[in-house]
Amino acid sequence: MAQAWETEFGAEGGLFRSLRSACAADWAAYTWHPFVRGLSDGTLPLPAFRRYLIQDYLFLIHFARAKALAVFKAESVEAMRDKAEAIRAILAETTMHLRYCEGWGIAEAEVRATPESAETVSYTRYVIDRGLAGDILDLEVALAPCTVGYGEVALRILADPNRRTEGNPYQSWIDTYADPGYQAIAKAAAARIDALGESHGGQARFAILGSTFAEAARLEARFWQQGLDAAEGHMASYETARR
Ligand SMILES: Cc1ncc(CN)c(N)n1
Asked: Per the database entry, which stretches of residues form a coiled coil (predicted)?
């Protein structure tokens, strides 16, 4: 039987699912990364999460810029309106980040002053570049692994038999992406890829679109990995526990 996250996003035969299955190994490495499994069972070392979360705040600011580019490149006024709403949602997402940081005694000004990591720069600027060089479909395909992937990550966590539900320090992170509001955004992003695939020649452009999508999925996996790498001193016992 298919898992919930396999059927929840995009339509059967649509461009989103074709892109996801064309890079199945990269996609699985992203959406069920050891970092994600550590969020689920609550064993992720806190320094790994802290590093990730601060960089993710910076990531979201640049992602909002990429979405603003999607307003510029939009094919219709309706699409512009939807994207404007998506920008509002992505900036609202950062409130969760700031709540965690506040709990650690880290003020927003300090988060903003943190230098971007190579992983943050490479992922965000890659997406912006795909949008600048291409059309709205190239850009939306580069954006989709972010928006849809976290929807899938949350569903995988909810279905995880090892999930820690009591006293999980990462519960509010999980709640943010399992929330019906976020899930609806993720579904709409996958549906948009399907629709643009139809209207903008997705099949004829599949080779380049597939490589953009797979690259973004790999950049997502590296984004988690930077958290684990930053917590190296704490990692030996974590990795032993994961085996
Ligand atoms: C790196 C990354 N990818 C996706 C998301 C979900 N918007 C996020 N917050 N950060």
From this structure: none
